[in-house]
Fold each of these.
Amino acid sequence: SIENTGKGYISVAVVLNASDYGVPQNRERIFFVGIRRDLPGAEQLAFYFPSIIARRRKPKVTTKEALFDLPQIRSNPKPLNVSEEAEIPIGKKGSFGEFRSRKTYLELIPEITPYSRTINDFEGELKLPEHLFNHKCRFNNENDLKIYKRMIPGAYLTDPRNKNALKYVTYGVEEDIKGTKKFTSSFADKYFKLDPDLPSKTITAHLSMDNNGFIHYGETPRGISIREAARLQSFPDWFEIKGPLTKQYKQIGNAVPPLMARMFGDVFKTFLEQGFDPLLE
């Protein structure tokens, strides 16, 4: 929709899904764009903006395409065990990851995937960090790990295929006289294993609380690491997230996917430097 505002701007609102722009995540959001009316071509840009954005759609990227090259790690075996001193180097038995890997990035990830090349592009060149940042998992209790292991990728607990996982759910449910568990609240969406063959579901700030809704699809049951959440948001691997572990998850969940920001930036940069016409080429 287009609206003439009272402060010299034309505003445009568009609803977009990040998965249509190379982000391996179903993330639908509304974007508001303000265009100064005194700029040449402002009216045309406002009118054609939805179609200009639509023409920049890209093939969808799956969760597996985004994550499969990252080193295998396990969940943290102890609660509140987040200090760097407690870390086991990635590649060694029992490693639950590191905030900053001891091995170099290329030792851990020797082959660069197409998705990795896309997110690590910086001004037309591949930029890689010296070490792998933030590939670290939090603690998951034993009962949750049993649920994780039995979950079917891409299916919520209400799906009949998850009946074996539901047996281990101890809260938010009650048993009927036949011993069948039923939900007492909106708890059915609490546990979810990511489907490797589809984009991820929306990464949210709730990751700061637990990983139950973002279970890794691999053989080792665990919640996704901070770096995996960042990958699903399209952050480059050289972007290091700081702060306590829970705050790192929250920062990622609250962010706008960088590939989405880049797409908008490319449109605005072209318009400001070359005018409206090149946007329709």
Amino acid sequence: VYSCPAQEDTSTRPGDVNCDGEVRIDDVVLLCRFIAEDKAVSTQGRLNADCDGIAGITSDDVTKILRVLAGLE
């Protein structure tokens, strides 16, 4: 189970699903696992995962993170 640091706060880091301070492909993998019903994402990670501007975690959030990683946004 991935969990964010003990010092969780209410601010979010869009796309940082595993809460390691960076947005990388492993965030996408973890988000896809979560969407596929693997609930291994912490509360803070879920807040960070919801990054496409529309409430709720969906595959659109995955697409948003991938577009950022590809330098398209």
Amino acid sequence: PFMRGLAPVRRTLNYLEGSKLILKPYIRIFLLHYNRSQKNHAGAKEFVFWHLDSLQYKNPDVQVITFRELTPTPFIRVWLNSGRELLLDIDRQSKDEIYERVLRTLCKTEQGKIT
């Protein structure tokens, strides 16, 4: 039963642990707003399908929330420890572009990792 459904590989431990999406320590809440039926939201929908589980797995102290069918354009909202928020517009971006942008903007660098 574990390997059934759409893309069962994303539910494997190796897939979850292989992610590079380790958020910076001052990020507390990660929200993603998107719609499932609109074309300009396709990249956000695919990002949720392929990367959100591993992002949540690698960042257990961060609250990860998705809001569907509530916005005309897709975006990511992040709240920091200081109470400030950061908005990323992801309208008409592919899942890979969103992945690279989140990795570049919100994640630790290879040098910043604690070993």
